[in-house]
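look at this:
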Amino acid sequence: MRLRPDQLDSHLSKTLLPAYLITGDELLLCQEAADQIRSACRQAGILERDVLEVDRHFDWSQLLDAGQSLSLFGDRKLIELRLGSGKMDQKSSAALQDYLGHADGSNILLVSCGRLDKRSMNAKWVKALEEHGAVLQIWPVERRQLGQWIGQRLNAAGLNADREAAELLADRVEGNLLAADQEIQKLKVLMGERAIDAETVAAAVTSSARYDVFKLIDTALSGNTPQTLRILQSLMAEGSEQIAMLGAVSAELRKLYNCAEQLANGHGIDRVLDGARVWDKKKALYKQALKRLKRRQLAELLQLAARSDSALKGQSDDDGEQLMQQLVTRLSGADLLPA
């Protein structure tokens, strides 16, 4: 079956299917949908979670092994399969279909990946997930809807904000929902129950850190490696939330990868950037970055971002901060493998 994100809460209150696919490039909304499924699993007594990160060296027998191994805390567990861009060859597609064909519903499989195009949505492995479970496509919030979306999030956070405040914040975050959520949480701490207008938002933005994640991303896209590293070091010294910062960089990387893929298929750059909903004032930066970074290099950066995420969450012995430095350095054009 297919579900809209706004149907997920109601669905999970009634049932828990053997498999779910969350696909999309809006990191915040994808995270929140995954959190809803994780919460439903915990309420159902499913306390153990296996996380499988898929890269080009992934052994698909791990998925079957995870499905067959017993949970330490009960009879059931949640298996998270993270596919990155969602590109599946015949072997990996067959392995996932094989798992689903033998699944008895005792475990829950949560598959996540970037936005899938129309052709990929008709792939056999997606159809198998649709048959055995539910598929959720997370669509971007359009610019004309962003002010309303932010207003709803402000109200949900218990903040009394007028329309102008929401629209100003929409301009501030440039379509980055993760950043919008961070700004809302900051306003909640600063303002409490006081009314929020555009002047309040402007003051809060002005009093924020000298450098922010937007400046970090834009500087990296421009190819200025020394300045990129200075901004990153400043953010880290100020105690910025590293996982959220990485999430914003990863979202930009996924968008760049999708653009590079379209360019490799022969589409014109202006059409590609319009299709990716790149804001007009960022198009020049994207054009610069896409001249430096080819599809394979961006795929490697996405893998590095996944390693950074695992390290920052304590799931590996790697140095998360060091990997973050490598990531933004290579995004800015330094230390890249040949195209």
In short: The chain has 17 helices and eight strands. Residues 213-331 form a domain with the Zinc Finger, Delta Prime; domain 3 fold (CATH 1.20.272.10). Residues 174 and 279 are 7 Å apart (CA to CA).
